[in-house]
Task: structure prediction
Amino acid sequence: MARPIVEAVALGRDFPLGGQTVQALLPASFRVQAGDRIALTGASGSGKSTLLHLMAGLDAPTGGGLCWPALGAPPEKAWALRPGKIGMVFQAASLLPMLDLAENVALPLLLGGKAQGARERAVAALDAVGLGGLADKLPEELSGGQAQRVGLARALVGAPKLILADEPTGQLDHATAQHVFDVLLAALEGSDTALVVATHDPVIAARLRTVWQMAHGSLRTEQE
Result:
C-alpha cells in the first residue's frame, strides 16, 4: 500500500477550561490515502473542526501521534505543509476585501514562494470553478455562493495533495450548497488529491465514498 497522506495513532486533543480539562478529541487512529473522498459527520461541537485543524497542522495534539508520510514533513515542521501540500476551505470564504479575486486566489502561491505565473494560475483555478470571467472583481461584488467558490479556487490553486474543508456549505442555502459541492467534486475529478469534508448535511455526506462519524469527541471510521 502507498504511504498515507495522513496517519494518526491514538491522536487526542484536550483543552483546559475553567480549571477542568475538556477532551475535544478522544484517542483516534486513522489513515487518509491519496484519492480518498471522506465525509466527516457529526453535530456542532462534536470535534470535527478540532480534528481537521490537527490534520492540517494548524494545531498540535496533546496525546498520540500524527504524521504525513506521503507529504514529507515531520510533525515538528507541520507548518511547511501549508499552503503548498494541504489546502483549506472554511465555512466562510474569508476573502481579503482590498484584493481582486485573482489576487485572493494567488495568495497561497505567493506565500509558498511561487510568485512567477501566480496570477495566470489563479485565473485558471477560478475558471475551474466557473468564475474565470470575474478575476478582476472585488469580493464585495460576489454572491455568497460565488465567494465560496473563490475559496475553493484558492484551495485548489497550488494542486495540494490534501484538501480539508470545514463545513464549506454551512452558510449557503440548499440549492447553492449543492452547486458549490458539484464544483468542488468536478474540480477534483480524476485527481489523486485526498478530500476530507466536515459536514452536518447528510445529502453532502452521501455524495462521498467514505463516511466518518464524530460524537462527543469520539471518531468512528470504517478502518476500525
User: Anything to note?
Assistant: The chain has one domain: 36-60+76-220. Residues 36-60+76-220 form a domain with the Rossmann fold fold (CATH 3.40.50.300). The helical segments are 48-55, 101-111, 118-128, 144-156, 174-188, 202-205. Residues 174-188 form the longest helix (15 residues).
